[in-house]
Amino acid sequence: MSTARLDSLTSWHADWRGLRVAVLGLSVTGFSVADTLAELGADVLVLSEQASDEYQRLIPIIGARLELGALDQVPSALIDFDPEVVIASPGFSPSHPLIRWAQESEIALWGDVELAWRVRDKVVRADGTPADWVLVTGTNGKTTTVQLTATLLVEGGLRAAPCGNIGIPVLDAIRDPSGFDALVVELSSHQLWYIGQSSSAGELVPYSSVCLNLADDHLVWHGSAEAYRDAKALVYRNTRVACVYNKADAATRLMVEEADVTEGARAIGFDLGVPGPSDLGVVDGILADRAFLDDRRDSALELTTLDALAEVGLTAGHIVQNILAASALARSLGASPEAIARALQSFRLDAHRIELVARHAGVTWINDSKATNPHAASSSLRAYPGAVWIVGGDLKGVDLSDLVADVGRSARAAVVIGAARGDVVAAFERHAPAVPVIEVVPGETEGVMTRAVEIAAKIAVDGGTVLLAPAAASFDQFSGYADRGHRFTEAVQSWIERGSADDTGLPPAAL
Fold first, then answer.
1. Shared domain check, 97 and 176
2. What's the DSSP call for residue 303?
3. Poorest-pLDDT segment among 182-186, 349-353, 399-403
């Protein structure tokens, strides 16, 4: 197909009829792509290794075709279809055979976010313009920051919606007939990599953007730490108003310095220290804005206080950083300090994010199952020093040595779960040999988490904490981080109901 036609497809109202599009993957994202394209009149072929019964039933109803089966090599159905565009779900890595085939065949390769950007004018505001996009990425804190930003904007009087990697496809938000003033879009590094494949016609132009932090993650998918970093940096490309970055993370500052942004865009820093001009930070327990006011060199605006955040359980250091980042994004769109203060009084964290499960017999139980990498676990351990740490899972090619050497040595004990237990134990032997380490071997009891909780309960002391912060993905033993967190919560509640009479079988030195 001619590049000219693809370049013309930058509106819902463009002529998409007959465009041959292969959609790779049929989860919630893949279905949103297929459904959108079918509504636009495109010729859609969906290829997926598996699909739910519901999606299998719906695909022909919407007017698309479905091919199920192995995708470890290019199916003949895809070759015969001769697609003009391939739109891949985020799970398809750059090294996947179908992605390589599309690139080698010089077929346009998009992600769902590029398609959403191209058709973002389906529903427009009163002035005829589509919603502004605010982009959020980072190794950790994305979902919390997206939810915070949308909450602050709504309290500030805008129609705003969280979407993207948070679980609500961007295309679903784009097609919502109620329409929005702003979309707060969570972007994974996978989605950003696909944005990096865009032609100029499909490039996003966000209103404001942030990379919250950067630490090694998804190295197998990207192939290297450098490739992962380069994907994250794409969040700032073409930003119009505010490039928000973490002053405590030099990598994010460098991303902004190197980004090709729209002329006039400002760099806005945040951290837990005293803010300079054009920053947000903390002064004497006050969260302060020195970026979005005229006299920012000599004054600041109060957003809220640490005391006020303590009343709603939002004082962990990494959560305060998320609040500052979200406030910067919201302020860039005009939310007032008063609206931010009001919104924060009713905001609550999602389940499985430093969630208080119970306080019993002097022990606090914290579920941070969403800490799926070392950077996230480090934040939790700093918030709860001296905790009994339940750690381990699928490490995704990441080494825990630095985490253990940095903050793991302060743990009272480590209860190690997961398929990569040997690597975790070895990290403690090398870098924190004084910390007692107990492995939970699958099959010892009816459930891995039940056994982990029993062990942790015997080690914890009055006034102490048991912290589930695995620093690893969950799919080796659970269906996802939520399943892992639910099983932890259930195991804690069961332990409390049974009392503490059970014998763990631990050696005396571990207790």
1. no
2. E
3. 349-353
Q: Phi-psi category of 441—alpha, beta or left, where left has phi over 0 and alpha has psi -120 to 50? A: beta
List, in order, residues 6 or more apart from 493 with CB less than 8 Å away: 357, 358
Pair 257, 146 in one domain:
yes
What DSSP assignment string belongs to 262-287?
PTT-EEEEE-SS---TTEEEEETTEE
Round to whole Å and give the CA distance between 352 and 237: 32
The CATH number of the domain holding residue 96 is 3.40.50.720
* pLDDT value at residue 363: 93
The CA distances from residue 32 to 29, 164, 193, in Å, are 5, 11, 19
Q: Residue 184 in contact with residue 149, Cβ under 8 Å?
A: yes
Which are the contacts of 91, defined by CB distance < 8 A and separation ≥ 6?
A: 25, 27, 190
The residue segments making up the domain with residue 273 are 121-344
Q: Is 211 among the domain residues?
A: yes
Instruction: Give me 347's structure tokens.
Output: 């905001």
Tokens of 424: 């975790």
Same domain for 410 and 375: yes
Strands of 206-317 (E only): list them. 208-211, 242-246, 266-270, 279-283, 286-289, 301-305
Q: In this structure, what DSSP letter does residue 137 have?
A: E
Helices 142-155, 337-344: crossing angle, 10 deg rounding: 120
Name the nearest CA neighbour of 91 among 231, 234, 221.
221
What pTM was estimated for this model as a whole?
A: 0.79
Least confident of 150-154, 213-217, 256-260, 272-276: 213-217
Both 142 and 258 in a single domain?
yes
Q: State both tokens at 307.
A: 């005391």
Q: Give the chain's length.
A: 511
Does residue 506 lie in a domain region?
A: no
Average pLDDT of span 458-462: 92
Q: Are 322 and 350 in contact, with CB atoms under 8 Å apart?
A: no
Decide if 508 is inside a domain: no
| Cα 483 from Cα 298, distance rounded (Å) | 50
Say whether both 81 and 230 belong to one domain: no
Q: What is d(CA 366, CA 31) in angstroms, rounded to the nearest whole number?
A: 35
Is the model's pLDDT at 500 over the cut of 80? Answer: no
C-beta of residue 418 within 8 angstroms of C-beta of residue 472: yes
Which residues are registered as beta bridge partners of 388? 413, 466
End-to-end CA distance of the chain: 69
Tell me how far apart the alpha carbons of residues 300 and 337 are, in angstroms, rounded to a whole number.
11
Q: How many domains does the chain have?
A: 3
> How many CA atoms lie within 13 Å of 450's alpha carbon, on the beta-carbon side?
10
69 lies in the same domain as 140 = no
CA dihedral 36, 37, 41, 44 (to 10 degrees): -140
In a domain? residue 406:
yes
| CATH number of the domain encompassing residue 157 | 3.40.1190.10
133 neighbors 182 (Cβ within 8 angstroms)? yes
Residue 76 shares a structural domain with residue 213: no
C-beta separation of 246 from 270 below 8 A: yes
